[in-house]
């Protein structure tokens, strides 16, 4: 067991992992299930995985579902849009709930509340009812926000990109896994004796049950923060109940959050779009059977096993040498390359080459998602939940806009839509060049001045009255622990005299 004591703590607390002064883990041990850090990690990605499976359970079975419900191409496009649009505002609301009530309760509640919609997919009997169940099921994707918030609350600056990347990436695996799971479940039920139009309905009970069980796991086994749950910490006085108006204000007035929301719309939003269209694209364009189309489509989502985690790890690696500027440059390069390969995917005409280009494209676009959430935790300490929600919601907005413009109806062929989507990725990614942190700099220029510190940036979110009451102490500790974002500057940058040293054993 490791022991860590924060600079201003009056007690010692034991943890299985080494921690900093906020009791956030400074190491990421993938194969550990130690409470509270690694247990939170495994609970969060499994729950998010379950929600992803539920949300994208329909696309691999669409050739059967469309025949049963007489769906037109427009109906299918509208349902795909509905599945990702439901989470736009849900993600922002989830961020707020995480800031005020904690990620454990917020995640478990939403996961459980949306499970009935998955069950009800089995009784859909029209285009409208099919659209509605996909819309309400899509709300569950907002658990992504609680996943990223939870990881940012449990892991220190030096490994937060890795923790966010692996949790988000393994959760996103559900988008690929469901392309394999649902056709297999459907085939099994069909071979047992059910008709095709009955088998697809019964198949939806599997993701619904999985989602329900994951919600109970989060609620009974999870913990909000290293030191306990929000409710316990509020009662003990160790954590104050923040003012929603102030939390919201500091989130919406921080332009960095808006830029990341837009650019995330063209990495994660693109991933959602591909999850909705790729199986049907290969089925229709290359005349492969349903099972083969599912396997090809699954390979796109399954790349999340290493691509998004790789993006998070790459973000942390670049930050060690180049600081925040390294994170930003790497994000821009990787996401731009994703746009290039998306253009190529729409241009190539052979099955083998299309699969190869799709796989390369998947690696870059998913790595960009991990790189994005290597930056998000540093935009705001006080409004982390809402910033995470804004960014996550931006991913859904990007998916909705992309599907409405390029993949709804017959205005564009799917291959033309893919090419135009790639152009959109490249153009929107340029906005990353505008992000600048006064204490660390941006892509093309350094810090505002050599005297600017992390404390200057994060303490600006608290007024003098709040500081007098000590509400800012958590932000002060975060400022100390985020000095690693200076990169090579870390040895020469100023350190305030009133700060407390980092402590980890």
UniProtKB/TrEMBL annotation:
It is found in: Endomembrane system. The chain crosses the membrane at residues 45-64, 76-94, 100-119, 131-150, 170-190, 202-221, 288-307, 328-349, 355-379, 386-406, 418-437. Residues 467-505 are annotated as: Disordered. One of its GO terms (biological process) is nitrate assimilation. Keywords: Membrane, Nitrate assimilation, Transmembrane, Transmembrane helix. The gene is LOC105156629. GO terms for cellular component: endomembrane system; membrane. It is a multi-pass membrane protein. One of its GO terms (molecular function) is nitrate transmembrane transporter activity. Pfam families: MFS_1. SUPFAM superfamilies: MFS general substrate transporter. Residues 494-505 have a biased composition (Polar residues). CDD domains: MFS_NRT2_like. It comes from the Eukaryota. This is High affinity nitrate transporter 2.5. Belongs to the major facilitator superfamily. Phosphate:H(+) symporter (TC 2.A.1.9) family. Belongs to the major facilitator superfamily. Nitrate/nitrite porter (TC 2.A.1.8) family.
